[in-house]
Write a structure and sequence with these properties.
The longest helix has 33 residues. The protein has an 8-stranded mixed sheet, with helices on both faces. Strand 1, helix 1 and strand 2 form a beta-alpha-beta unit. It is α/β, with parallel strands linked by helices. It contains 10 helices and 8 strands. It binds uridine-5'-diphosphate (UDP) and magnesium ion. Magnesium ion binds next to loops.
């Protein structure tokens, strides 16, 4: 690599995107040319196959042009981890993260790069969905609540509606590489670094082909991961609530004892007993499950397994081949 031209690495995690591979490869050429002419940067694509089971790898290998490499993970590790694998194999001066399904457009990418280059104080520009109207009301409501709890009493704020469509400087990428969380919640990690970041709003293009890899069930699991890696608020709410119920129970106990002492009748009260037992039993189970999530998160970190396993690397741009970590 020549020393004068700075390089932009574009990290693209993909899982079964055969239907988008050809269009993406075309878009990659377009982006490379635009980045060269507008900013004088050379571009290298780092495609990360996150355990695809279709022929997307072959299609990318056949149609990608210019400088690119393709890392294959040994199985599906999740998009967040695939991005880390890409970062581990990147040494660009700037790093752009992009989806393979063409929802992240060239125009927005160029706009983000120009913002980042224009302001040396900035270390990241990220794209925020202008609205979530395509989501169902319930999903939106849960998302809002999630961020509210997530950001309670935090020294840094995790912005709402921001995804992984981002461009960052070399030192930001280095910081991300240093964060070796096993259960990765990227939005939290970006915020945690503390670097100056700027947002731009965009309307994601419709997915051109294939379908989303994130079901509602996956989103729920994902938000639990966010909590366990970035927030103690659920546990605090739990403690406060537990204490509150305990006080109520104590007061009610005094009332029962007084009644027995004064009137001597202790038999009635089956309904209230049942309610108390069932409500408390149910709450106990649910809250223990929540505590279990945190324990599980702690256990996953403690096992010190590698975060991902690399199966193979291909492509013309393999300047640097670091071992999987
Ligand atoms: N993806 C991935 N691993 C996964 C799930 C998704 O690499 O386990 C990739 C996917 O192929 C796409 C990007 O992450 O390039 C965003 O996924 P998707 O479009 O399904 O998410 P959405 O845009 O619906 O939020
Ligand atoms: Mg998508």
């Amino acid at each position: 690599m020549s020393t004068e031209t700075k390089q932009l690495d574009v990290i693209v995690p993909f899982l079964n995107e055969a239907e988008s591979a050809i269009d993406f490869s075309r878009m990659a050429v377009e982006l490379t040319e635009a980045v060269k002419s507008r900013f004088g940067l050379s571009t290298c694509f780092i495609l990360v196959d996150d355990g695809s089971t279709d022929n997307s790898v072959e299609l990318f290998e056949k149609h990608m042009q210019g400088k690119w490499k393709l890392l294959s993970l040994s199985r599906n590790f999740g998009k967040e981890t695939a991005i880390l694998a890409g970062l581990d194999h990147s040494d660009g001066d700037y790093v752009l993260l992009m989806d393979a399904d063409l929802q992240h457009t060239t125009e927005v990418a160029l706009e983000m790069i120009s913002r980042l280059l224009a302001n040396p104080e900035l270390d990241m520009v990220y794209a925020v969905r202008a609205h979530r109207e395509d989501d169902r009301l319930l999903t939106r409501w849960f998302a809002g609540l999630f961020y509210k709890i997530m950001n309670m009493g935090q020294r840094y704020e995790i912005p709402e509606n921001a995804g992984d469509f981002r461009v960052m400087t070399r030192r930001f990428a280095a910081a991300m590489r240093q964060l070796r969380d096993r259960k990765r919640f990227n939005k939290g990690l970006y915020a945690w670094t503390g670097f100056r970041q700027e947002r731009i709003e965009y309307l994601p293009a419709a997915r051109r082909a294939g379908k989303t890899k994130y079901s509602r069930r996956k989103l729920l699991a994902f938000s639990l991961e966010g909590f366990t890696s970035f927030s103690v608020v659920p546990l605090r709410i739990l403690s406060v609530f537990g204490a509150f119920v305990a006080v109520l129970g104590f007061l009610y106990g005094i009332k029962v004892i007084l009644e027995v002492m004064i009137s001597g009748v202790a038999v009635p009260g089956y309904p209230s007993l049942m309610v108390a037992v069932l409500v408390m039993g149910g709450l106990n189970l649910a809250l223990m499950g929540l505590v279990g999530e945190y324990v599980w998160a702690a256990l996953s970190e403690a096992k010190h397994r590698p975060i991902y396993i690399l199966k193979s690397i291909s492509g013309p741009a393999m300047r640097k081949q670091t071992a999987a970590s």
